[in-house]
Fold these 4 entries.
Entry 1:
Amino acid sequence: MSQNSTGPRDQSEDRRKPSLQSGQGTDTPHGPVVISSEPVPFRLVVPDERTVWFPGDLCYKSTDPYAVRITFRMDDYTMDWIFARTLLIGGLLEPIGAGNVQISPCRHNGLDTVQITLKPHQVYVVLEAPARMIAGFLKRTCQAVPLGTEHHHLNLDLLVSRLVHDVG
């Protein structure tokens, strides 16, 4: 996984159940570390100041240690966006990002928020979420896999096997 965001992905696994299999910074003998958030309320920012809320779930897996997945849910439709974990961390402190994803700190009605701008094609969408929820989730990911140690969690044999299979 590249450290840049890759945009939307479609996944079928159920990410609605929060779980933390380990918090010690290394994969356990029982499997990889998986950290999921409680549903995060995302506010769609629209020009006429209407408020449109929808839930999103954050998920981090040590098997993909550089990435954070956000699954947005509206009715029966879900859309996944994959972000570099460092991009989301940086966006808590200052405006960061280019291309399809830009993240910056913001305030809305006296509350610290994180503003995420997604540009999948010719259009764009701006979302806001409570900064404390995003920061709490990211703190747990860094306790499980500290920044700078991500490479210890990569299964290079599996990655090479997948690349060879995809190319062949």
Entry 2:
Amino acid sequence: MEEGSRKAIVAAFFANLGIAVSKFVGFLITGSAGLLAEAAHSLADTGNQALLMLGGKRSQQKPNGRHQFGYGNERYFWAFVVALVLFSGGGLFALYEGTQKLLHPHEADSIGVAIGILLAAVALESFSLMTAVREVNHVRPEGMSYWRFVRTAKQPELPIVLLEDVGAEIGLLFALFGLLMTHLTGNARWDAVGSVAIGLLLMFIASILAVRMKALLIGESASTSDQDAIIAALTGSAEVERIIHIRTLYFGPDELLVAAKLGFAADLTVATLAQAVDAAEAAVRAAVPTVDLIYIEPDLYRETV
């Protein structure tokens, strides 16, 4: 796992752990549905950071006879589990709690305590979000939007932490709105509305993450820019006459497989052909450092009628 991803996960873990404890204590004092929903949200986020760390650790296992391409996809699998936890442990719980309070409203006590806890949580979440944004900016190509980064990044941790932190900030605003409206109107259902809004928000974010992680688990090819760089590296050799076909596949964020059938000059000796293949592999790895495995099949190009 990249150092930037690890920093963002650690910052989010400790921020969410402290926030979850404070929110739950606040719920016990106030009985606020919004605070309970936010406590569940932060607890789910804390567990999610632990799952991301677990995925990063397990992905470092060496290839073996049963898993000959290694364990890079562990990061994608555990990231998919994170999306499921966020949907069920955070979103569905908050939606259920809010619905129950809508049907059976309960006046929240000590509104000032609840608001103070939420404001402190906003400060901690802002620290986590700034850490995530800073680390994302280290790897996000210049000019690429954050939304496109989330949709195209091959490393799962940074998009997840970024979306979780953005969702946490918005969720805190929902909880604050519900509590303030409850205080101003005397209607406890506003607090429940805040909880329902938090639940729907978390389910929406979890759905985005699940779709993205599903795509990575199924297997994605190299980006257009990386594929162009690979093709340029392969065709840069004088011995390579053309690329007959090429396939790429990510087995993990830093493990790109390249398989290519190349048309070589017909008059090459075996020794010269071997040297040309080695040179092509070296050129590809220099052009795209995430390339891990390369399989090149030499062939003679034949026109088809």
Entry 3:
Amino acid sequence: MPFDPTALDTAFKSLAAYDWAADTAPFQMIDAAVIAAAADKALRADLEKRFGALLADGTSRAAKEYVCRKLMMIGTAASVPALAAFLGDTDNSHMARFALERIPGPEAGAALNKALGTVSDALKIGMMSSLASRRDLACVPVLTTLLKGPPLLAIPAANALGTIHSTEAIAALAAADPFAAEGVGEAVVNARLACAESLLAAGKRADALAIYQGLAKAAAGKPDAKAIELAATRGILACADAVAAAS
């Protein structure tokens, strides 16, 4: 399908007026252009410019969601400012965040990190999830602080640190209380186990073993921590099996 400017102009005019339950047939040209843009830098830049203009033009939430879905596929640093403008907007934050999560490069990560420090607590949870998916190391200091806060933020902070599992993330989790109330301790333990599993899978047996041994020591002699001790013991045995298999 050719992507001449006139045809795309018509399709984008339909998108500008789009709302829920409206006919999406006119968007077939845009959908095809987005696919073709993967191998066409000029077309990609043109589409990003058009999408950015729509985001800034007061279009409907439905149109914005469509745009964000397409930018998940072809978005570059050029689209970051337009998407970042919606990260604090309750209605559009999640779709903008999903798009930024998938855009490579430091600009998207920087936008998410900035939002983590400014958006509402409810939206912070999503920012943590996206930054963890990106394995963004820059967010670890903020996550470490949030880990010490109320459960609403401490639990997703622990989850994010477990996904990132950098040296700093592991240290932050090790310093947290595995028996904290309101689900925080459980999240910390699960995150530490996730770190250990990732390290073991990557062949970093000694680092994984240190986490398992730390959890086993913390749980030893505590009747309510039998599940933690069992999980840690299994991990220690898995580390031993890994050494035997390598011998």
Entry 4:
Amino acid sequence: MSKPSNTDLVRKRYNRLAFFFDALETPVEWFRFAAWRSRLRNRIVGKRVLEVGVGTGKNLPYYPQGVNITAIDFSPLMIQRAQRRASVLGTEVELQEMDVQNLDFPDHCFDTVFATFVFCSVPNPVAGLQEVRRVCKPDGRLILLEHMRPGNAVLGLLFDILNPVVVRMMGANINRRTMDNIRRAGWKILEAERLSSDIVRWIEAEPF
């Protein structure tokens, strides 16, 4: 029997987390995340938009009106939770099970692509960001809300040490060098606002 890929392992981890994922994050969602997510209403532009890593649908309440949004996730159980939330909210969204590392969309078809706290868990984040660049229009925009490895040497080392434990518990890496990954994938960073020290940032970028 072949060994499961990293993608398969991460998918299984999020399938296991799907049922109680919202409960795990409720305190921090109320305290910080919801306010940061609400920015999406005013920053998403264009008629065709892609959300990567929709998860349980936490961004659905912040979708702007009059926009055709497709939302993907590679966890089928997360998609099920998002479908329920969309039904309760009455939000129109096309939900698809799909891996950001291998998007089933043509080149240059989305005006805006956005993700919140996603590229900390994508097995190959640079490959995922390259795929996002491929499907984004040349004059399009990437919006990310991400946590990442702190720049402070001591804190960075601590995050490196704790990362294996956090990955097992929550599925997310806390020591990703996301700013470097974005640039390596061919994006020009236009804005990188620090929301919580340099650990959580609001990022906007455009394709090179």
